[in-house]
């Protein structure tokens, strides 16, 4: 018993990046989460599918995901890199190579092809960088971090304190959001017959070429090539999904740049992001 307690103490002390689901101290938290997921996905996803997820050795708790989420500084991201000559040239080449497809998508959705390619460039460097985090582990970690007793073990001596009212509100909001996205992802994985641990994405769970979270996949994902599946790792479906997102949020080609910026900020709530997308698009038109 003393060995187990000492081992748990060491785990908390070093603040590990990964804690596998078979760690004994996680068991009650995982069990509570599993019961809740089964109840909320009742009649949508079979219980044995959910059981297999929660008993998988690949299920991993990443407490640093929530810590990163609470300390993220969007305005400090180096968006200027996407305006470098080499990237603009690659984006122009991509636009030319896919001109017919992009013109067709622009016609259907009313979103300029340059805006679509600009978002594709910023999100994943034209598909080169889609992320290395198993999406299910990201949302599982955010949801599990909603357990105050558990999460506080990993924020000792850090800049985060749940005694701070604003931090606590953001922590609760991120945990609730992560739990809902976990439900969406499990349902999507089941319906698409995916290995739920095979889908990799960003540190905050966005995946595919357009970097959609699961809810966005359900709302904005578009099957452009009509193969009866939405594949966010396919160029046609991805570009159409980006355009569909903007159209559904109210994008109009004839509107002002300020109006377009507000719509693009619904794709990513960041003014530097939206300004960069518009600047790239302008470069692509020239």
UniProtKB/TrEMBL annotation:
Q: Where would you find the membrane-spanning parts of this chain?
A: none
Transglycosylase SLT domain mapped to chain residues: 41-259
State what protein this is by name.
Answer: Lytic murein transglycosylase
Q: From which lineage does this chain's organism come?
A: Bacteria, Pseudomonadati, Thermodesulfobacteriota, Thermodesulfobacteria, Thermodesulfobacteriales
Q: Name one GO molecular function term.
A: peptidoglycan lytic transglycosylase activity
- Which BP terms in the Gene Ontology apply to this protein? peptidoglycan catabolic process
Q: Which PANTHER family match?
A: MEMBRANE-BOUND LYTIC MUREIN TRANSGLYCOSYLASE B
Taking the record's annotation, the residue ranges forming a coiled coil are none
């Amino acid at each position: 018993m003393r060995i187990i307690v000492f081992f748990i103490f060491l785990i908390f002390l070093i603040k590990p990046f990964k804690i596998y689901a078979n760690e004994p101290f996680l068991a009650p938290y995982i069990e509570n989460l599993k019961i809740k997921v089964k109840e909320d996905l009742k009649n949508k996803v079979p219980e044995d599918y959910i059981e297999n997820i929660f008993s998988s050795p690949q299920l991993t708790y990443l407490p640093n995901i929530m810590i990163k989420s609470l300390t993220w500084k969007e305005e400090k991201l180096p968006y200027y890199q996407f305006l470098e000559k080499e990237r603009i040239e690659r984006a122009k080449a991509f636009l030319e190579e896919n001109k017919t497809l992009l013109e067709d998508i622009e016609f259907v959705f009313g979103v300029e092809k340059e805006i679509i390619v600009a978002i594709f460039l910023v999100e994943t460097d034209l598909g080169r960088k889609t992320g290395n985090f198993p999406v299910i582990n990201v949302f599982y970690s955010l949801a599990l971090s909603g357990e105050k007793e558990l999460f506080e073990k990993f924020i000792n001596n850090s800049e985060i304190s749940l005694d701070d009212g604003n931090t606590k509100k953001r922590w609760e909001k991120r945990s609730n959001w992560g739990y809902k996205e976990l439900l969406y992802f499990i349902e999507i994985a089941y319906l698409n017959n995916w290995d739920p641990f095979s889908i990799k994405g960003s540190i905050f769970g966005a995946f595919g070429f357009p970097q959609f979270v699961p809810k966005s996949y359900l709302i904005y994902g578009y099957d452009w090539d009509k193969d009866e599946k939405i594949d966010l790792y396919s160029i046609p479906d991805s570009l159409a999904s980006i355009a569909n997102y903007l159209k559904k949020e109210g994008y109009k080609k004839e509107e002002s740049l300020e109006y377009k910026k507000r719509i693009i900020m619904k794709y990513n709530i960041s003014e530097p992001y939206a300004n960069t997308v518009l600047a790239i698009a302008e470069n692509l038109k020239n």
